[in-house]
Amino acid sequence: MLLTDSTKKLSFTRCIRDGDLVIVYEKHDTMKAIRVCETSVLQNRFGVFKHSDWIGKPFGSKVFSNKGGFVYLLAATPALWTLVLNHRTQILYIADISFVIMYLEIVPGCLVLESGTGSGSLTTSLARAVAPTGHVYTFDFHEQRAASAREDFERTGVSSLVTVGVRDIQGEGFPDEYTGLADSVFLDLPQPWLAIPSAGKMLKRDGILCSFSPCIEQVQSSCAALRSSFTDIRTFEVLLRTYEVHEGKMDCGQGDESVSFGSPPYKRRQRSNEESKMQENTSSPVILARPCGESRGHTGYLTFARLKSL
């Protein structure tokens, strides 16, 4: 759980309290965000879990249901929040987010402008990166989407670091009050080239802009608009490959066919009882690794450019 106090200093609460937001982890692809309430319960396939049993336990605890089933209670870090938040729009995921924050050179104290807010996946991580003294000003043309994002920032404890505005940046540009103040600008728009002239005015000397686009044609138009006022224009596609690592058994002397990867069963000769006992005695545990079958592919292109020094 990310909390901010009156001085905007961000910290982790190590023990769960009534009212905290926790990520209930069932397995790697089954998680949900839940607000702790002393009188509430969680019911799932593993049984009934009383919230009152969670209070006072440290984040990361393993808690049990009335049936003996269990889940883990995790802190709502930006990485986990990205996996459980409500998708009001297409979102950026961990690989793109981490790349954006590093390449935009975002550090504590930075002022960042963003358009559009969308589901707030990137915005939450930007807030963490600029804390405790920086600020993120994010804009979305859709009023209801902006209101939902504000509620999410309250839930995750970063609302004091983020200001959400309703504005059509493509048509109106960024507000003049930020002229020359932004350390970096991030654009996630259908036609980002329309907002590039305004973004250039907002940036400090030598400031950096990033534009996220799912289609290469958008990248081409954006790069054409960037050349007049920006330099060091680069475009990247970040592809992430994850692996499953777990313990299995290898039968000594039987070759690769005997390695257990959890694959579907296949026909083979039925062993006798004596052969089965010998097989058990000759098997040994090993750590197995293989690529996940559901690795995420293309999400979009990230175009970076640095404002020319006049």
UniProtKB/TrEMBL annotation:
Its main location: nucleus. Its EC number is 2.1.1.220. SUPFAM superfamilies: S-adenosyl-L-methionine-dependent methyltransferases. Residues 253-292 are annotated as: Disordered. The keyword S-adenosyl-L-methionine applies. Residues 69-306 form the tRNA (adenine(58)-N(1))-methyltransferase catalytic subunit TRM61 C-terminal domain. It is an enzyme of class 2 (transferase). Pfam families: GCD14 (PF08704). Keywords: Methyltransferase, Nucleus, S-adenosyl-L-methionine, Transferase, tRNA processing. It is found in: Nucleus. It comes from the Eukaryota. PROSITE patterns: SAM_TRM61. It catalyses: adenosine(58) in tRNA + S-adenosyl-L-methionine = N(1)-methyladenosine(58) in tRNA + S-adenosyl-L-homocysteine + H(+). Belongs to the class I-like SAM-binding methyltransferase superfamily. TRM61 family. This is tRNA (adenine(58)-N(1))-methyltransferase. The lineage of its organism: Eukaryota, Viridiplantae, Streptophyta, Embryophyta, Tracheophyta.
